[in-house]
Each structure stands twice: as structure tokens, then as C-alpha cells.
Amino acid sequence: LFLQSTPATSIPTVQVQGQQISLQPPSYTAASQHAEQMKKPGQNFMCLWQSCKKWFQTPSQVFYHAATEHGGKDVYPGQCLWEGCEPFQRQRFSFITHLQDKHCSRDALLAGLKQDEHGQAGNQKPSNK
């Protein structure tokens, strides 16, 4: 996420359909930016973006991570690459709303994990990386 130097009190927000969505970082207990993809105690929510698979403690941490790391201005690929999601072309602001509504609610994250455990997380083709 590339932000110009702004006072530490300012929080990036995006305006989506008249709604202000705050991209305030949730309070992390472990401040490691390069979290290994190991599940730590209390981390029950996983980012299911393509091959990310990072674990977080709360749905809001997953949303903040996905909105900035996968949906950031310089990295957003133009469509949602969440496991099992239809790859429609979306504007970035539309994607942020979609992410919050469809993938980062508590229920959606728990449902996605159940699918992932059973190896039926949608119809994504394996990436050729």
C-alpha cells in the first residue's frame, strides 16, 4: 500500500456508493507483516485469495489485509481472485464493497474455510505459478 506521508492520525477511506468504508488497520497482536502461513492460536479466519492462505484473528483483519494487499491501487488485478468467486471485471471501489459483503463477513469466512477443508473451494483452476 503506497500512501503519501500523512499524519499518523489519518486513516485511508474509500467512498463506495455513498458509503464511507474505513481501511483502518485492526489492532494486531503479532505485528509481523510477513506472517508465515502457519495458524497460530486464536487465528480462525483465512484469506482465501488465490494462493494467499494467511491466517488472521478477526474478519476485519482479513478484510483489511485483502483490501490493501490484494485490492491495493497498485496490485488489484481488475477482478476478484477469491477462491470460488466468479472472475467478473470490477472497478476497485466496487471490489472493496464486494470483498466486505461477500467474502469478509464472519459467516462467509467460516463457510469458505469449511469448503476449503473438504477440498471443494469453488471451481478455480490451479494457477500455473
Automatic annotation (TrEMBL):
It comes from the Eukaryota. InterPro entries: Chromatin_Remodeling_Comp (IPR052406), Znf_C2H2_type (IPR013087). Keywords: Nucleus, Transcription, Transcription regulation. Residues 47-70 form the C2H2-type domain. PANTHER family: AT-RICH INTERACTIVE DOMAIN-CONTAINING PROTEIN 2 (PTHR22970:SF14). This is ARID2 protein. It comes from Smutsornis africanus (Double-banded courser).
